[in-house]
Specification:
This is protein-glutamate O-methyltransferase. The chain is α/β, with parallel strands linked by helices. It has 10 helices and 10 strands.
Length: 281
C-alpha cells in the first residue's frame, strides 16, 4: 500500500518550490497556480513514498547540497507539454512559400533549424517533414538540413526520441503525408504510429534550459521555432531569452513564436513579416 500524501501544500512550501521554478526555469508561478503545482508535486511524493511536502522539499533541496536528480524530476513534473503535428500550420506555409525560397535565392544550401521547447517531438519531426517536402518539390534549391530539438524536461525528450505516437495524432494530416513519413504499428490493435527513420535521422535532441547563460552552440541557425513557450515567462524574461536567441540566429534568419506571443514593445532587431513570424534585420 502506497504512502498517504498530506492533502494540502502549505503557503510556505508552495513559495519555496515556486521560487525555485521561477528562478531556475523562468516559469511564472503566481498564487493561482498553487493547486496545479500541488497536484503535480504530489505525484513525486507518491513515487518517493514521502508523506509531506515539507519532507519532500528537504529531500529535493537538501541542506546546502541539492538533490540534482530530483530537481530534474521536479521540473519534469511542473512543465506543461501540449503539442501536435503541424500545429499552427500557417507557420509551415510561410516557411515553405517564403523563408526557404529566401535562403535558396541567397545561396544558402544547408538549413539549420532549432525547435526550442520541443516538448514530445511533434514540432521537430514536422520541421523535418516540411524540409523533405520542400526538397522533393524543389530539387536542388536546398541540399541539406538539420533540426536541433531541445527542452528543459528530460521526460518529454525521452518520449520524443522514441518517435511513437497515438494514431489520432495524425488523423488530420493528408493521406500522402501519412503514407510517406509515418509507419503504422504491425499490431493494428495498438493504434500507434512511428515517424519513419528517414525523417528522424535529421533530428537531434538535447536538454537545454533557457535560463542558462550560454546555450553552447557554435554555429549560426537559420530558423528558430519557439512557440507557446514564452507565454509562461514574464516580459523581462521573454526579452532576455530572445536576446540569447539573437546570438545564434543569423541576419536574415527567422524567429517563429506562438499565436499568443509577440516581441512588440521590445527593442530588438526584427521586422514582422507574417503573423508571429519575425525576420532578423
Amino acid at each position: 500500500m502506497g504512502v498517504v500524501v498530506e492533502s494540502a501544500m502549505s503557503d510556505s512550501d508552495f513559495k519555496k518550490i515556486a521560487s525555485f521554478i521561477e528562478k531556475n526555469v523562468g516559469i511564472k508561478m503566481p498564487d493561482v497556480k498553487k493547486t496545479m503545482l500541488q497536484a503535480r508535486i504530489s505525484q513525486r511524493l507518491r513515487a518517493l513514498n514521502i508523506p509531506t511536502y515539507s519532507e519532500y522539499i528537504r529531500y529535493a533541496f537538501g541542506r546546502g547540497v541539492p538533490n540534482e536528480e530530483e530537481l530534474v524530476h521536479m521540473v519534469d513534473a511542473v512543465t506543461t507539454n501540449l503539442t501536435e503535428f503541424f500545429r499552427e500550420s500557417g507557420h509551415f506555409d510561410y516557411m515553405t512559400q517564403s523563408a526557404l525560397p529566401y535562403f535558396a535565392a541567397n545561396g544558402k544550401r544547408f538549413i539549420k533549424l532549432w525547435s526550442a521547447g520541443c516538448s514530445s517531438g511533434e514540432e521537430p519531426y514536422t520541421l523535418s517533414i516540411v524540409m523533405q517536402e520542400f526538397q522533393r518539390k524543389n530539387p536542388g534549391a536546398i541540399n541539406g538540413y538539420s533540426v536541433l530539438a531541445t527542452d528543459v524536461s528530460t521526460k518529454v525528450l525521452n518520449r520524443a526520441a522514441g518517435a511513437v505516437y497515438q494514431l489520432d495524432s495524425v488523423k488530420n494530416l493528408p493521406m500522402d503525408i501519412k503514407r510517406r513519413y509515418f509507419l503504422r504499428s504491425k499490431n493494428r490493435d495498438d493504434k500507434l504510429i512511428r515517424v519513419k527513420p528517414e525523417v528522424r535521422k535529421y533530428v537531434s535532441f538535447a536538454r537545454l534550459n533557457f535560463m542558462d547563460d550560454d546555450f553552447g552552440f557554435r554555429d549560426t541557425i537559420q530558423m528558430i521555432f519557439c512557440r507557446n513557450v514564452l507565454i509562461y515567462f514574464d516580459k523581462p524574461t521573454q526579452e532576455s531569452v530572445i536576446r540569447k536567441f539573437l546570438r545564434y540566429l543569423e541576419p536574415g534568419g527567422f524567429l517563429f513564436l506562438g499565436h499568443s506571443e509577440t516581441i512588440f514593445g521590445m527593442n530588438l532587431p526584427f521586422k514582422n513579416v507574417a503573423p508571429t513570424v519575425f525576420q532578423r534585420i
